[in-house]
Design goal:
Layout (H helix, E strand, L loop, with lengths): L7 H16 L2 H24 L8 E2 L2 E2 L14 H34 L2 H9 L4 H30 L12 H9 L15 H30 L6 H9 L1
Antiparallel strand pairs: 1-2
Length: 238
């Protein structure tokens, strides 16, 4: 919506965000945002929690805040640390893949025939009604194929969570199948990683199949009654 806006600061922000994130490798953003977001949150808490602090926060390569501004606090339980790391991971994924999703939605909005918009205006609809009743319902038909591909890529990008300190399913498969694993069991066993990764293969294939079935049904629902190829096929079948 920002990229399509006629207000140039919003348009500049939307198109710039999409272009920058799509043009930079994902791993660079994952390495950057995990530090930048964490320091941003702690800097904001530092201003609130420690207003009497008279030293600089950034001291060369060091980032120093008061103990009360740390996220999470040093005496917090382990689940708080894990939840905070997971929150940072979700936020980073949203920033990175949100640019790709925004580009898909932007293209889908432009793909809606202009005649539909002009017809809505001829019937007396204002810009908000046209957007909500005409543009958005038809936009999803064009956006869903791109969003479905993006969803498949997103499900396979979860090993990048290891860079953020989050233990994902690939991490657990490697750790559980390793020969030296006193963290979970003292029972000695061989290298079972191949079997764990085979189970991981079945899991990802199953997740892909479930996603395809769900997305296909969603596409059928969205194209019902619309003047699209999918809608024509449904009417012929009926």
């Amino acid at each position: 919506m920002a990229a399509r806006s006629r207000i140039w600061p919003l348009s500049w922000f939307g198109n710039g965000y999409i272009a920058i994130v799509r043009g930079v490798p994902d791993i660079a953003f994952f390495l950057f945002f995990v530090i930048a977001l964490d320091q941003l949150f702690e800097a904001i808490r530092h201003k609130v929690k420690c207003p009497d602090w008279d030293q600089a926060i950034w001291q060369g390569n060091d980032f120093v805040v008061c103990a009360a501004a740390k996220l999470p606090l040093g005496n917090s339980p382990q689940w708080v640390h894990e939840t905070y790391g997971f929150f940072i991971a979700v936020l980073t994924f949203a920033i990175v893949f949100g640019a790709f999703a925004g580009n898909v939605l932007y293209g889908a909005m432009r793909a809606v025939p202009q005649a539909q918009i002009e017809t809505a205006e001829a019937y007396g609809m204002n810009a908000r009604q046209t957007f909500r009743r005409i543009l958005v319902p038809q936009m999803w038909v064009y956006a869903l194929p791109g969003l479905s591909n993006l969803w498949m890529v997103l499900t396979k990008a979860t090993p990048l969570l290891f860079l953020l300190g989050v233990e994902d399913i690939v991490y657990w498969a490697r750790e559980l199948g390793g020969t030296a694993n006193p963290r979970f069991t003292d029972y000695p066993h061989g290298d079972w990683r191949m079997w764990y990764f085979l189970a991981l293969l079945v899991f990802y294939l199953g997740l892909t199949k479930i996603s395809e079935v769900f997305l296909e049904r969603l596409m059928q629902r969205l194209t019902h009654g619309q003047a699209t190829t999918g809608g024509d096929a449904q009417r012929d079948a009926a």
